[in-house]
Design goal:
Layout (H helix, E strand, L loop, with lengths): L4 H12 L4 H20 L9 H13 L4 H20 L26 H9 L6 H16 L3 H5 L6 E2 L4 E5 L5 E5 L1 H20 L18 H14 L8 H14 L4 H8 L4 H22 L4
Helix pairs in contact: 1-2, 2-4, 5-6, 6-8, 6-10, 10-12, 11-12
Length: 295
């Protein structure tokens, strides 16, 4: 009598592994896909070899499954064959040397330089809040700071004479970041006019403050920049991190070397920064397609 391997596997997942009903159903669903492929290949689940399992994974990709879904299906197959090994049904796990497909890293999105200019012009810097927001956007685009680094800046972190900000990044790593003349002018204007109006005689150690005298939160800046994006006519969801991506991309587009950009961004590993080189390559391809007469 033919054993119901998948049903035994279901009980194993429920009783011995203690998985949730949702996880059990997902594992069983993926193993049933493998079973159908096995039957079509003239085999049976317990006797499949690595080559058949890899052909099954390729078939999933041909059906349109993304690498993440294929990896999940392989995880289910691994669990099934471990179950068979533990039950001494088979001696070796055929999935042991199967490699999960690599998911393609999503390329960072960024603003065009003209879009950045429109965004910078969006705040009304004749008001205290607008002066603060314009200075924050200028500093973020000029420095590539993370939003958490930006809102936690204190007055003591700013050296206006040198045009440098000291910030504490991930892993409590301190770095010095230049901000450039345009951002310096906007910060100076904010410190002279906008910040005193927001504080109204209160004291605060934060550089960028609210009307209550506290530091602006990440959510507060996110909400503000979203509104300015709409005002500037930018037709995409705008986040503070998009400005950080734009900072890095524009530096590389204009000839900056990768190591310098890594240092400015505060990346501990240059491989994290290298993704921006792919962005600039894609940008060059796009320009070529748009403007070359034989593209």
């Amino acid at each position: 009598m033919k054993r119901a391997w998948i049903e035994e596997f279901r009980v194993y997942l429920q009783v011995e592994k203690g998985l949730s009903p949702h996880s059990v159903a997902a594992y069983v669903r993926d193993v049933r896909k493998l079973e159908r492929h096995a039957v079509a290949s003239g085999g049976q689940l317990p006797s499949l070899n690595r080559q058949v399992i890899e052909s099954w994974m390729r078939s999933l990709g041909q059906k349109g499954l993304d690498p993440k879904s294929i990896s999940r299906a392989l995880s289910a197959a691994r669990a099934f064959y471990r179950f068979l090994v533990l039950g001494r049904v088979i001696d070796a796990d055929p999935t042991e040397l199967c490699e999960s497909p690599r998911a393609h890293a999503a390329l960072p999105k960024f603003l065009g330089q003209e879009e950045v200019e429109r965004l910078l012009e969006a705040p009304d810097d004749s008001t205290a809040r607008g002066s603060r927001d314009r200075a924050m956007i200028e500093v973020m685009y000029a420095s590539g700071l993370r939003v958490s680094e930006l809102v936690s800046l204190g007055l003591s972190h700013l050296n206006m004479e040198l045009g440098i900000i000291t910030c504490m990044g991930k892993g409590s790593r301190e770095r010095l970041v230049p901000i450039g003349e345009a951002a310096q002018k906007r910060v100076a204007s904010y410190l002279r006019d906008g910040r005193p109006k927001l504080l109204k005689q209160r004291r605060s150690n934060f550089l960028f403050v609210t009307s209550r005298g506290s530091g602006l939160t990440r959510q507060g800046f996110w909400k503000a920049i979203k509104g300015y994006g709409i005002k500037a006519g930018i037709r995409r969801p705008l986040t503070p991190h998009l400005l950080r991506h734009s900072f890095a991309t524009h530096l590389l587009e204009n000839g900056a070397d990768l190591r310098s950009v890594q240092t400015l961004l505060g990346h501990s590993d240059i491989s994290t920064t290298q993704i921006y080189t792919y962005v600039t390559r894609e940008r060059l391809k796009q320009v070529h397609r748009m403007y070359h007469p034989r593209s």
